[in-house]
Amino acid sequence: MSEPVLEIRRLSVDYGLGDSAVRAVRDVDLTLHRGEVLGLAGESGSGKSTLAYGLTRLLPPPGVISGGEVVYHPVDGPPVDVLTLSPTQLRAFRWAETSIVFQGAMNSLNPVHKVSTQLMDVIRAHQPGLGRPARLARARELLRLVGISADRLDSYPHQLSGGMRQRVMIGMALALEPQVVIMDEPTTALDVVMQRQILSQLAELRERLGFAVLFITHDLSLLVEFSDRIAIMYGGRIVEQAPAAQLYGAALHPYTDGLLHSFPALRGPRRELTGIPGAPPDLRAMPDGCAFHPRCPRAFAPCDSRLPRLGPPADAPDRAVACWLHPAPEAATR
Amino acid sequence: MSIPTSSVEQVIPEQGAMAQPSVRPSRRRRLRFVSGGKAATGLAVVAGYVLLAVIGPWIAPYDPDARSADLLQPPSAAHWFGTTHLGQDVFSQILVGTRGVMLVGLTAGVVATALSVLVGVTAGYLGGLADDGLSALSNVFLVIPALPLIIIVTSTVAGAGDLVVALVIGLTSWAWGARVLRAQTLSLRRRDYVEAARATGERTWRIIGFEILPNLTAIIASGFVGTVIFAVMSEITLAFIGISSVSSWNWGTILFWAQSQQALAQGAWWWFVPAGLAIALLGTALALINFGIDEFVSPRLRSAGRSRARTADGRTVRMRVGFTPVLAPRPASPAGSGQREEAGR
Amino acid sequence: MTFLLRRLAFYVFTAWAALTINFFIPRMIPGDPVKSLISRFQGQLSTDALHSLYVLFGLDSDDSLWDQYVDYWRQLAHGDLGLSFTAFPSPVSEVIGDALPWTLALVGVTTAVSFLLGTGLGVLAGWRRGSWVDGLLPVTTFLSSVPYFWLGLVAIAVLAGPGSFFPSSGGYEPGLVPALDTIFLGSAVQHSLLPAATILISSMSGWILSMRNMMVTVAAEDYITVAHAKGLPERRVAVSYAARNALLPNVAGFALSLGLIVGGTLLVEIVFSYPGLGFLLFRAVSAKDYPLMQGIFLVITLSVLVANLLADVAYLFLDPRTRKEG
Lengths: 334, 345, 326
Ligand SMILES: Nc1ncnc2c1ncn2[C@@H]1O[C@H](COP(=O)(O)OP(=O)(O)OP(=O)(O)O)[C@@H](O)[C@H]1O
Ligand code: SF4
Ligand SMILES: [Mg+2]
Known about the structure:
The complex is a heterotrimer of chains A (334), B (345) and C (326).
Chain A: E1 4-15, E2 22-33, E3 37-41, H1 48-55, E4 63-72, E5 80-81, H2 87-93, E6 98-101, H3 115-126, H4 132-145, H5 162-173, E7 180-184, H6 192-209, E8 212-216, H7 220-226, E9 229-234, E10 237-243, H8 244-249, H9 254-260, E11 320-321
Helix pairs in contact in A: 3-4, 4-5
Chain B: H1 27-31, H2 37-59, H3 90-126, H4 128-143, H5 146-156, H6 162-172, H7 175-189, H8 192-199, H9 204-240, H10 251-260, H11 269-297, E1 308-310, E2 316-318
Antiparallel strand pairs in B: 1-2
Chain C: H1 2-24, H2 33-40, H3 47-57, H4 65-77, H5 92-127, H6 132-145, H7 148-159, H8 182-218, H9 222-229, H10 234-271, H11 277-286, H12 290-318
Adenosine-5'-triphosphate binds next to strand 2 and helix 1 of chain A.
């Protein structure tokens, strides 16, 4: 495995302050390696977007980051904790090192400016030395990269189809050749054909440019095909993390297993579709112990009182799971 | 005469990345706006005015028409707000005048609100040709300057009393509310539970009465309050320029006499200041209610309680869009320390 | 272009509706206003003038309502609004023509300034919530709840005593002859300062508030988050992304609020005896000068329509979505 590019350590994110705070992301540890695609999956409301916005410090009020570190490793130079950057530093860091494609990118483009303006202003902000012709050339190149003809530069967002807008956003995300691209359900709003098309294009671009992707979706089937590793989120925590093939082959966490059984297999043997009974947990009243225990078909003695920690189970050192069925060798309770 | 500042119109459900799912508001939630400070203050003040409207004529120390020998006296213990050129007690005039003001304001508000609900909801729900026609109608009424129209219509109707004034104002000022309601009905109609009700063959009037109207409560209320503000202002204006009958008292009548008897030139500030403040206070209270409703409908507008937060290690950070505050203490870990100035490239 | 054409059609329709309302209003007047006038100006009325008054008031009882309506339009087409009772025998159009420039200058300038200033402050208040501008909000709320004319009264009482720089009434120094020279214009500007300030203070808070609320609403849009994520300078995010979009509903609202603002400014004119349409309307109403009242209503309505059209053109430039697909 290559070196890490982004390390999230014990990150916690709250909505609100003091007593009214709800913790939407709890003690998340997650490492993104250089050039890999890390998939992040989980039910709606499990905190995937909150994690993505939180680590880039883009959460709107009342969101606050209540703890943890987000360490970024530049190609050259010492690592940086994104959470300690001043606004000016943060502004310079954004997009140049990590860019984001947002959930439902339909509204991600400013409706009153041309595509070219929006592609060029980010280049100008980060590379003030570049002249307008150079910026324009770069914008044209970016559109070509995502398969849109250059005459669309003069279009306004409302003149583009949903798929085109999404590609423009992907092109824009690559404008400064960042090391990390975060994608929050970039294709959920599109039809399946368009989805596939954009994803294969993305895979190809990654091969070529070598950026790492944190790919968020609740569609696990997509991740199985598309990502190197997969992390599963439940109730604000990462509950399992493993190389994609291993996770698909044998889910360790009962929740992952449930997720895998909620969609039809695209390849390989047919599985029985069962889904997961029950409803996602209420963030204000999280169950004690393992948050999944009220819904877990295999819950047993320790589950409703002691929190299982995320760690590598004894028999599979390159994956991690938080479940009492697979206690880590040095499993600790908190 | 203030510009309608309700932003309710803009609160068509958004589809942002962090949008909350559309759920039916519960009854409890609907009433919660009263607990907000602004709305509660506004309601309390308006309630005070309503009380005065009821008991004003009984608690007034003097007959507002009665002349006395105290001509043009400044405020004193005997005459709290001073006297007019005829020795009439300004305080009593204000008290007695409250009734007319509130009556016209509320009547006009009711008339205009009823019309706006009728036109707006019908247009929004039916769509098609009916919508086009009704929308055009309300747009026409929106664009035609209301006050000159009201002035001319009232001055044409001989000796317009309170009721006529209220009707004229109500009939000319429903359009804004109708427009907002139409937009909101249109968006409600596409919600799942309304679609479901339609699909199951629920009667139209039942859908409107039980699925749509309850969800429009806040907007209807806000429109009502807005119209009351406008009606009060218009009514006072009419009285001030001497169009509606000057024989019955309202605050505008006081200002009319003050103006026509050169109160300004004689330095009799007490003659026109109390009436103006009474109007301003009522207007502010009504506006506060509307702010409360606005913030209730569109939570983003709430001042969010605190715009600053204290971190664990005692720093103060600002809640700010685009730069999520970090409450965690600055870590002393190897990655964090010493490299803070390192902002990537 | 279709957007503009549609709006244009709508304004034509509205103008027609307003003129039709105008046609019916005098027909509700009880009694015979023209009779009293004729007896007042015995013998001074030409038959032509008499006829035009009859047409205006629908006292030509021989004609059907439809014929009266056609006549009314024919007369309007010639710019004939009848004769003013008060300024007899001047035609209404002439009386209004004298007053119109005053109102246009006063309302035009103050409305533009109030819109720009209010919008600017609203952008600040909405972008930096909790800043000093937020402290302004209660004050402006209070000021916008005060009737325009009352604020004018207070301004006169406080600022315009004898010997003060601010004249308390009129549009220019009484002795001067209206002309386009510096003395006259200077006097006119001096006379318009207080009325303008009154209008400004009363109308600005509305813009501040609505712009602030729009900024707050827009600040939660995805494209603003994207702009932050792109690391753009704060000013660019605030101006080019947030304010630029928040402005759109405010420009649309500008058109709709204009009618209200105009209503308010007419009253300020009354208080300051400013020689514009508002003061004229006041005098017409007091003297029951129906032709003049009607003429003023027509002119005001048409002016508001034109202003609305201008606002629409501005909107067309601001919002690419209304422009034709390219
Ligand atoms: N402004 C807010 N205030 C309070 N709670 C919030 C707020 N925004 C989100 N939440 C809560 O935080 C939790 C995580 O939300 P988040 O949007 O991160 O979920 P998600 O995993 O991205 O879901 P989806 O798949 O639907 O995008 C949810 O339970 C949500 O209710
Ligand atoms: S810890 Fe217990 S409850 Fe939680 S997933 Fe594992 S078995 Fe189920
Ligand atoms: Mg999400």
